[in-house]
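Annex B. Sample input.
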Amino acid sequence: MSETAPIVPRRRFLARTAAALAALTAGFPGSATALETYDSKDSSEHDAWMTGLKGKHRQLFHGLELNDRLMLMATNFMDTYRDSFGAKPEQVNAVIGVHGAALAIGFNDAAWAKYGFGKTANVNDPTTKEPATRNIFSTGGPLSVDTLQKRGVVFIMCNNALKMQSQSLSKARGEAPETVYEDLKASRLAGTIIVPAMVVAVNRAQEAGFTYVRA
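Annex B, continued. Sample output.
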């Protein structure tokens, strides 16, 4: 028997393993096959926010706290791919999903003043050093909502969380929940998108090939 004979079975094993992995990957979310199947057979009007995001590197950042951590992580994600991996802007997509207290990131100054988001979440205005009565995250800096939107970042808001917040605020204000809900919907920053439920949006994004980060 030649010295190389024992290697043949091992080569066959590696070939079979490679073939099995290839077959598994072909049906794994994020592969071309999975994305084509998702887009053509499982699309919904509620998925419109991600249909234009075709970059190779796509990540959804999910946050429940009212701070700029979401924007910082999304910025770091895009900057690192650009500076260290040479990725072009269109190759990198970031989505920010807000839920719970983080919903206030998506509301305008009038809503902040009216509903006291700054006081409730202990967020102070850096100018006045008092509880913020304006959305300090909306404009004016590298981590602001408008700056990230200009870089292509998509902001989505959970409708179920919005309904729950409306219920809570309506009790404190003695108003009908529906009235508060409609007011908050109308008070969203331009470009923010409401999705039925964040937990489903995360699921559908992952099925379509997005990765997920809890910020």
